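Input set for joint prediction.
Command: fold jointly, output tokens.
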Amino acid sequence: MIIRFTLNNEEKTVDVPATKRVIDLLREDFDLLRNKVSCYQGACGSCSILLDNCIVSSCSILAFELKGRTVVTAEGFMKTEEYQRINHIFQKNQYDPCDFCRWGKIFAIHEFIHSEEHIDSDSLTRALKGNQCNCSSPTLLLSVAEQIVKAEKKINTGRKHERTARK
Amino acid sequence: MNAPHENSRLSLVFTPEHLGEALSLYARNPGAILYAGGTALLSKQSERLPIFGAPLISLKRVEELKTIRRYENFIEFGAAVTLGDILRCKESRFLPPVFKTAVRAVGTPAVRNTATIGGHLAVTERKLLLLPILLILDAAVEVKSQTTTRSGEIKRFLDEKNGFILQANEIITKIRIPTGRFNLWGFSALPGSVIRSQDFFMSCFVARKNRFLIEKINFAFNIDGRLVIRIKQSEDRLIGKKFPLSAAEIREEMRFFTSKIEGELIAPSPYKKERIINAFRLILTQDLTKSGLIE
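tokens >
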């Protein structure tokens, strides 16, 4: 099956079996290795990517579903300013998750930043629920996530006000 | 029409873009598997390269199944709308809080961005989290085949065990959720996953009160994803009662409810029957004098 989609801001065309799992497509056909594969059940979060800017488990998405859609992997997100700010807060708090869970957690935080959910420990805990690795302190993760979300929402609010003022 | 995609022995996949096309394909391929979000289907696949043994008809690109519309008394979702999109849409602020809370409890954000509301209802192996919620909200569905259209409250589509039943070649097309009918609600689900846990239990209720009197109350329980229980006679007995109930009234309602559970319930262990009875007691002993979430 020939699939055309956008991958990390570039138009791509690939010929693969229609039911190939997207995590395998990304790792085998595009050599994008930062997103890992572990459970093949959509439970652990290590294969998380952004599909149309929403977090999904790429082991639970099949190739034919990518047609005409936009995919961002770890490699693509690393080039964004948002990632630089997230990583800075990680480093400031000495929070360094392992390579298996790092991107699941980052994309979960990204999803929360762009949601309308109230920022509290319950909603943050729910948002981070899909990541099962315990390489690092869950309490520290919550604290770091809260700092990131508050900082990013402040930036987004500032940008909205600027756009309104310009109108 | 999009040509199907096939690779020798691997799965044949159709990706229709319009409902008529999808219904026609399903009529011509009655053994085909409908693929919406795919979360339930893929959870059963152990192979790296899933092989389904039947053609897939993907509903993801069908325009008519992705709409969200708000009407005066209800919000209508196309069956292929994902649970994540339901939470993000601008209409979500009009949704019953019990429904939004239950949607947030489904899986993880990644699962909710893939799973669809129609697929959630259509899963046959287990009765998932939102089925009891939609039942107590008196939600309605529309199902279509190439030649027929049926619609009505969800309870009309349930069998005697409250499982959702579709006839040959039917697809769920729309789900309608009433708004503004209830001003009290409660929801709890333990533990987290109805698909993975053999000990899952969920209870939910909605009610409309006018000052201290209950005008309407609906409640339901989901046991292990295998049984959805709703005792209509118990609901009817509470209408017109003043809350909080007296101790004698609570005893009487517990006696009636327990007799129904003991007499009619199939399968659950004594432990699980006890859980249902305790959950009902919790509903009865709520103050119900203030609106909002009661856990």
